[in-house]
Amino acid sequence: MSDKEPAIKPWGGRFSEATDQFVERFTASVSFDQRLYHHDINGSLAHAAMLAKVGVLSEDELKQIQTGLEEIRSEIEAGEFNWSVSLEDVHMNIEARLTDKIGITGKKLHTGRSRNDQVATDIRLYLRDEIGSICSEITRLQQGLVALARREADTIMPGFTHLQTAQPVSFGHHMLAWNEMLERDFGRLQDCAARLNQSPLGAAALAGTTYPIDREYSAQLLGFDRPTENSLDSVSDRDFAIEFAAAGSLIMTHLSRFSEELVLWTSAQFNFIDLPDRFCTGSSIMPQKKNPDVPELIRGKVGRVNGHLISLLTLMKSQPLAYNKDNQEDKEPLFDVIDTLKDSLKAYADMVPAITVNADVTREAAMRGFSTATDLADYLVRKGLPFRDAHEVVGKSVAYGIAQSKDLSEMSLEELQQFSADIADDVFDVLTLEGSINARNHIGGTAPAQVRAAADRAETRLQQR
Ligand code: ARG
Questions:
Q1: How many angstroms is it from 412 CA to the middle of ligand 1?
Q2: Is residue 119 lining ligand 1, measured as CB closer than 6 Å?
Q3: Digit-coded pLDDT (tens) for 31-49
Q4: How far is residue 43's CA from residue 218's CA, in Å, rounded to a whole number?
Q5: Is position 91 annotated as part of the catalytic site?
Q6: What is the CATH number of domain 116-203+224-363?
Q7: For residue 7, what pLDDT band results from cuts at 50, 70 and 90?
Q8: Helix 239-266 vs helix 171-196: angle between axes, to the nearest 10 degrees?
Q9: In angstroms, what is the span from residue 283 Cα to ligand 1's centroid?
Q10: Which of 115, 121, 123, 206 to probe ligand 1 with, by most ligand atoms within 8 A of CB?
C-alpha cells in the first residue's frame, strides 16, 4: 500500500479521507498495548464461546475463530506477528489478522462487543495475573525476612528513634517489622484483585447490546466472580488501576525505607551488615568502593511509581461518563508500576537471605548510646521512685557517663549510687543489653523468645496463603 492510499480502517466506513499520518501515530496505542495480546485473545475466546452458546455464532464459526486466535497467539509468541500502527491498537491488529486468516467469520467476532468493554476486560485480566506474580514475590521476600529474623533473634542492635540510639532491640525483631509492612501490602493487593474481578464484557460501547448475550457465562469462562453491574461504569472507570498503583506506591515506600537502612548499615560508619558482592558495584575511580546500588536504585524508583499514581488519578479526574480516549493513557503508567514492583521485589527477595550481620558491631553500637537508660529508670520506679524523679536520676548518670566515657553497665555500684541510694547490686541485671531485651517479653516485644514466637506466627500465615 502506498502512503497516499487511505489506510483501510475497521471503522473507516463514514470517513472520506485517510487519517493524517501524524494523527495515526499520535492516537495509536499498539506500541505499548500489544503487551495485552494474551489476555485480549482469552477475552475474545470467551466472548466467541458465549456468542456460540446463545446461537449468534454457529459451532463451526466458533471453531474457526478458536483455531485462528490460537494461531495468532503462536505467531505473536514466535515474534512473527506484524504489528501495524495504522490498525491502532492490539484489539484491531488481532481482529484484522483473524479476518486475514479465516475470512468473513473473523468479522463476526466483534458482534455484541466494543473495544471499550474489550479493553476494560483485558486490563482487568492482565492486572489480575500480574498481581498474582507480584504477590508471589512479596511472599518470597517475607519468607527470607522471617528466616533472617529467626537466625538473628539473639543479635542485639541499637533501636533508634530520631536516628539516635534509643533502646536495644533484637536484629530479628527489626526484620519482623519489615515483614509486617509487607503483610499489609500483600493484603492490599488481594483486596484490589478481589474488587477488580468482575467482567465488563457485554457492556459493549457503553449501553449494552441488543443481542441475547449471556454475561454470566463469559464472566465464568474468564474466572471473574460475576459480570459488572452497570455498563456505563464498566467501560469508563479505571479505579482498579489507581487502587493498584496506590498499593504499589506503598510497597515502594516500604522498600525505600528498607533501602535507606541497608544503605546506612553497609556504610563504614555503621558497618552493621554486609551485602554480597553480587548485589553491589564498584567505582571507576575509587578502587576501595563497594556501593549498595541495588537498595539505592530501589529507593530512587519510588519516585516513578508515585508519579504514575498521580498520572492515573489525574487522567481519571473529571472524565464524564462513559469511555473517553483519555483512558488509553492508563496503560504505560500501569505497566511501569507493574515492572518496577516486580523487579524491586525480586531484587529484595534475592538479596535478603544473603545479608550477613556483624553482630559484634551492632552489639558495640547498642552499648555506646546509653541504650539501657530507660531500663535504669524503670528499675528505680520498681524501687518506689516516681517516674519523673527516676528520669532525672538517670539523666544525671548519663551526663556523668558521657564525661567519663563510660556506659551505665560499665560503672561501679558506688559510681551509680552517687545518683540514688535506691540503686543496689541487682541493678546490673537490668543494665546489660541482654537483660534489657529479655525484659520486653510480651507479644510484639523484642525479647528473643518473643521474636521466635512472632516468626512462628508469621511463617504459619505465609503457609496459609
Ligand atoms: N486503545 C484503546 C484504549 O486503550 C481501546 C479502546 C478504544 N475505543 C475507542 N472507542 N476508540 O483505550
A1: 78
A2: yes
A3: 999 999 999 999 999 999 9
A4: 8
A5: no
A6: 1.20.200.10
A7: low
A8: 170
A9: 47
A10: 115
CATH superfamily of domain region 373-431: Fumarase/aspartase (C-terminal domain) (1.10.40.30)
Amino acid at 396: K
Indicate which residue of 2, 162, 318, 405 is catalytic. 162
Residue of 51, 69, 70 whose CA lies nearest to 108: 51
Domain 12-111 top-level CATH class: mainly alpha
Residue ID of nearest Cα to ligand 1 atom 12: 328
- Tell me the pLDDT band of 8, cut-offs 50, 70 and 90: confident
| Mean pLDDT confidence for 324-352 | 98
Q: What is the pTM of this model?
A: 0.95
| Active site (annotated) includes residue 174 | no
Exposure string for 112-131, b = 16+ CB within 10 A, e = fewer: bbbbbbbbbbbbbbbbbebb
What mean pLDDT is predicted for residues 70-99? 98
Which candidate, 432, 342, 302, 415, places its Cα nearest to that of 379? 432
Judged against a pLDDT cut of 90, whether residue 289 lies above it is answered with no
Q: Is 330 in the pocket of ligand 1 (CB under 6 A)?
A: no
The CA-atom distances, in angstroms, between 144 and each of 249, 457, 464 are 22, 15, 16
Q: Is 328 in the pocket of ligand 1 (CB under 6 A)?
A: yes
For 285, other C-beta atoms within 10 Å of its C-beta total: 6
Active-site residue, from 58, 74, 267, 283 = 283
Name which residue sits closest to atom 11 of ligand 1, judged by CA: 325
In the reported structure, the alpha carbon of residue 120 is separated from the centroid of ligand 1 by a whole-number distance in angstroms of 9
